[in-house]
Every structure is written in C-alpha cells, then in structure tokens.
Design a protein that fits this description.
With 130 residues, the protein is of the alpha+beta class. Helices cover 23% and strands 17% of the residues. Strands 1-3-2 form a three-stranded antiparallel β-sheet, with helices on one face. It is flat.
Amino acid sequence: MSAMGVSGPAVTQVQLTGPADEVSRLMQVLSGVSEVIFGPVMQPGRGGDVSCTAQVVTHPSPEPVPAGRPASVTVQVELEVEADAVPGLPGTRSARQVEESVAVAVSALPGVRGASSRLVASVGLPAARE
C-alpha cells in the first residue's frame, strides 16, 4: 500500500457495564491489546453495576520504515498509585501531575526525540476483597 492510500486511525466505541471488578478487569484487558480512551467510570446504579465507555483506536497496518527514518510508537500505561503517594488523587489536577511526570520520564529514554501524553482516566480503585 502506498503512503497515499494509508488512512488515519479508526475509533470503535464500546460500553462496559457490570460489576466494578469485572469492568476494571475488562479495562485492563482492552488496554493490554489496543490503544484505548476510557471515559469516566459511572458510579454504581441500583443493581450495583458500574458503567464506562471505551473508545478503541485502531491504526492501519504499517509498512516497513526505511532505514534511518524515525518511527512513532504509541504506548498506553496504567499506573496503580499508592493511596498517599500523590495527594488529591483521583482528582484531575493530581492526575495531570502524574501524567506530566510520566512524559518527563519517558522523554529521558535513550533515542527518544520527544514524548507527548494525555490523561485518559483517573479513578479510585475498589477496596481489596478479603
């Protein structure tokens, strides 16, 4: 396929609804296999289920990059942060501080010319089951 025939990324939206633990598990699985943009997790309804919208991004199949030409790599990272490590989490201001710290750390990797980041979601985790 020529460069002119390559189209941009496609987005497929899915709705995840169910018990909080299962929605969280599905969010982790989706994040592990694709670029995903998660909406906020809606608090439990009458049945105890939570709901979250996920937009799954797919890119066209790439052609080999000619030698000496840089490449773009998209990586999505989920961080589980200790309760007192970043005051104010899961608030947006604190979450953006975490996002900025990740971008700075990734920028310091060998061979990285630049890094950009975006905050996808910041939510409290369910209490651990005993």
